[in-house]
């Protein structure tokens, strides 16, 4: 009995403790569930945002891959193509301030979803001209009416061709001219790209800050790196899609394939540029779906509940952060507007932010211009087709960029690099990247031998855009047009502007396999008395050019990787040097400045500079200058690479200034911390301890914030 009573007493005494244990267990369980809910929510948002980045990068890169196709299809110069490309940034400019400032205080996921739908509408609009304009007409007349005589041949005896045929052909040209006179269908491409820019506006400022708000500090850099890496996968598929569509004829499905007289290797070839935009628009619609079901707010991580800023941010934010920020849920639009100017003043009073903004603007001028015209540069410099160019960029160059961006985020996390280290990493990647870019000047190809442009009809090397130089004794009696561009390759390895200017008087077969005979100009270089033959299309570049192209690809890949390593550190530097409640606004201003001062002007002035290297301009059917047909390879190389390199080196000077300001602030803050630590009898021992050992820092100082672990 005694034993049993003791057991009962022990049982009841233990049972009285059980409620306390259960409540403790319940609190731990709820905390665990909250943590899981937070992690699950942010990961769902991360996946949805990554897919949106993929979609917008796919459509954006596809536009870059179709630059030369659009130029030929609408017969416009590179400078106008640059305006079309820059219209995307103009769309961003129209609403970026409103979206970044007011959007941060509204339902961010749904705003992103609405932006995706607008972006898809713009992408569909770009493809619309294909269905409203006539069939593509290249500068090659149908070969032949009587199987041996072509209107483009050297017709020294005008009676060889019946007058009715000439009149019929001229009537056809005039009819086409009347149709094209009121046709400016490229405006639809510009407007569609403008709409794409409007729809893309909320994705970056609202998406990145949403992650930074609800992810743990140690995961923020990795998540941002993942988003940017997935965004780079988009251009891979974008350029590969561009490569596939470039092999399909622009009017495939509408014309008989046997009637097409040119191949995808021809300089006048235009691929099915419109098809990729329909695919990209559909993907953007799918990307918008998840955001309509995501919450406005997620539970904040435990490490961020008791602090509004990280200790690392407080090192570089000189403003007073003691103000309690109002809840965004019940703030009215009028109250938001009152804070606009003070927020703007606070932002532009931050020297780190301003200097980094200047460095980014100048660097992105160089990178945007370089990327926009890279396909054109490869095609013109190394004689590659549009399809192969897009394939190489998508499969080799873009993955190097993705790996570089991801490496930057991984380095930040593994080495726990602070803001000062992020600035160093960003500066180092830019310096070595542009240093490698310098070597590309030695990896170019010489100009192809084109009679009357880069070489005379007698074999003398010359460089001229004088139209009279296209004529020589061998073709004076041919009544050739100086505006034609229908290149043929002579058996002597020289390209001639047209069969007429080559003095060719006969041809066999027709279409792609046409062979011209009795070409009086072809035989003048080696044996003036001998008349030779020629085939359709320009001659290939010299034998050394494929080797130079291989060297170019290797250096280009290494350069792309090196420059991309600094991408994620740059983002972290931008986020950590500003006050938390201004992050969305700061990213919006940053994006606005990039759009206005880099995204809009860079393609335009790069295009204008590239146009100055043109040797042979095409002519529109109604008169006026069309798209460039042939560039001076050496001048193009110096203009394209030189402009990129000069801008890049200027941006490095601003990056050095950013590092200097951060060093100055870091050293002064460390002195203050050391003094506070001595008063508390537990000072910090070294700068390394201040940046890395955050737990020790919390115990020995009065900072309530936790050190950022990147």
UniProtKB/TrEMBL annotation:
GO molecular function: bile acid transmembrane transporter activity; sodium-independent organic anion transmembrane transporter activity
Biological-process GO terms, alphabetical: monoatomic ion transport; sodium-independent organic anion transport
Keywords of this entry: Cell membrane, Disulfide bond, Glycoprotein, Ion transport, Lipid transport, Membrane, Transmembrane, Transmembrane helix, Transport
Places the protein is found: Cell membrane
SUPFAM superfamilies assigned to the protein according to its UniProt record, in alphabetical order: Kazal-type serine protease inhibitors, MFS general substrate transporter
Transmembrane segments: 40-59, 80-104, 110-132, 220-250, 270-294, 353-371, 391-411, 423-443, 548-575, 587-610, 639-662
Membrane topology summary: Multi-pass membrane protein
InterPro entries according to UniProt: Kazal_dom (IPR002350), Kazal_dom_sf (IPR036058), MFS_dom (IPR020846), MFS_trans_sf (IPR036259), OATP (IPR004156)
Pfam families noted in UniProt: Kazal_2, OATP
Domain Kazal-like as annotated: residue spans: 468-523
Region span, Disordered: 300-323
Primary localization: membrane
Catalytic activity annotation: L-thyroxine(out) = L-thyroxine(in); 3,3',5'-triiodo-L-thyronine(out) = 3,3',5'-triiodo-L-thyronine(in); L-thyroxine sulfate(out) = L-thyroxine sulfate(in)
Signal peptide bounds: none
KW Signal (keyword) present: no
Keyword Lipid biosynthesis recorded: no
Annotated protein name in UniProt: Solute carrier organic anion transporter family member
């Amino acid at each position: 009995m005694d034993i049993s009573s003791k057991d009962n007493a022990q049982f009841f005494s233990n049972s009285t403790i059980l409620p306390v244990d259960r409540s403790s267990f319940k609190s731990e369980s709820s905390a665990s569930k909250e943590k899981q809910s937070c992690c699950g929510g942010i990961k769902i948002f991360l996946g949805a945002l990554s897919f949106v980045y993929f979609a917008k990068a796919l459509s954006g890169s596809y536009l870059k891959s179709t630059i030369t196709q659009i130029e030929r299809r609408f017969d416009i110069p590179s400078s106008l193509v640059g305006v079309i490309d820059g219209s995307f940034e103009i769309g961003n400019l129209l609403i970026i301030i409103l979206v970044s400032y007011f959007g941060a205080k509204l339902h961010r996921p749904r705003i992103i979803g609405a932006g995706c739908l607008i972006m898809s509408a713009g992408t569909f609009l770009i493809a619309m001209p294909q269905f409203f304009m006539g069939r593509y007409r290249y500068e090659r007349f149908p070969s032949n009416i009587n199987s041996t005589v072509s209107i483009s041949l050297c017709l020294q005896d005008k009676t060889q061709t019946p007058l009715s045929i000439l009149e019929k052909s001229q009537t056809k040209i005039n009819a086409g001219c009347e149709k094209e006179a009121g046709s400016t269908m490229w405006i639809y491409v510009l407007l569609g790209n403008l709409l794409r820019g409007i729809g893309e506006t909320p994705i970056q400022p609202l998406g990145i800050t949403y992650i930074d708000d609800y992810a743990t500090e140690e995961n923020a850099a990795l998540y941002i790196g993942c988003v940017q890496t997935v965004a780079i996968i988009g251009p891979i598929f974008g350029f590969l899609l561009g490569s596939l569509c470039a092999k399909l004829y622009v009017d495939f499905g509408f014309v008989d394939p046997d009637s097409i007289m040119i191949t995808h290797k021809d300089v006048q070839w235009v691929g099915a540029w419109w098809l990729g935009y329909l695919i990209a628009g559909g993907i953007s619609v799918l990307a918008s779906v998840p955001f309509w079901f995501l919450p406005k707010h997620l539970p904040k991580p435990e490490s961020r509940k008791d602090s509004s800023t990280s200790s690392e941010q407080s090192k570089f934010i000189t403003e007073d952060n003691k103000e309690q920020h109002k809840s965004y849920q019940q703030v009215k639009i009028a109250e938001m507007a009152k804070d606009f100017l003070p927020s703007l003043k606070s932002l532009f009073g931050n020297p780190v932010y301003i200097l980094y903004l200047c460095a980014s603007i100048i660097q992105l001028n160089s990178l945007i211009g370089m990327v926009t015209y890279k396909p054109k540069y490869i095609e013109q410099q190394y004689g590659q087709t549009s399809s192969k160019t897009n394939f190489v960029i998508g499969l080799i160059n873009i993955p190097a960029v993705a790996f570089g961006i991801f490496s930057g985020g991984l380095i930040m996390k593994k080495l726990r690099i602070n803001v000062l280290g992020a600035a160093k990493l960003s500066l180092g990647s830019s310096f070595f990247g542009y240093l490698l870019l310098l070597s590309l000047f030695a990896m170019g190809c010489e100009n192809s031998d084109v009679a009357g442009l880069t070489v005379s009809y007698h074999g003398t090397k010359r460089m001229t855009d004088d139209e009279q130089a296209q004529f020589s004794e061998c073709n004076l009696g041919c009544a050739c047009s100086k505006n034609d561009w229908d290149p043929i390759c002579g058996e002597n390895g020289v390209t001639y502007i047209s069969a007429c200017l080559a003095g060719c008087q006969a041809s066999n077969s027709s279409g792609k396999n046409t062979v011209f005979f009795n070409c009086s100009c072809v035989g003048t270089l080696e044996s003036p008395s001998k008349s030779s033959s020629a085939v359709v299309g320009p001659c290939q570049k010299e034998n050394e050019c494929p080797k130079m192209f291989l060297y170019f690809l290797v250096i280009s890949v290494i350069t792309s990787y090196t420059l991309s390593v600094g991408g994620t550190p740059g983002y972290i530097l931008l986020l950590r040097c500003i006050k938390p409640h201004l992050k969305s606004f700061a990213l919006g201003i940053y994006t606005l400045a990039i759009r206005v001062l880099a995204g809009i002007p860079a393609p335009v002035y790069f295009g204008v500079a590239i146009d100055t290297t043109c040797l042979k301009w095409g002519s529109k059917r109604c008169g006026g200058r069309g798209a460039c047909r042939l560039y001076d390879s050496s001048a193009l190389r110096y203009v394209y690479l030189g402009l990129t390199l000069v801008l890049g080196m200027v941006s490095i000077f601003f990056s050095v200034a950013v590092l200097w300001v951060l060093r100055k602030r870091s050293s002064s803050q460390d002195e203050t911390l050391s003094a506070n630590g001595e008063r508390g009898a537990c000072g910090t021992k070294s700068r390394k301890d201040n940046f890395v050992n955050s737990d020790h820092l919390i115990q020995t100082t009065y900072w309530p914030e936790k050190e950022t672990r990147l």
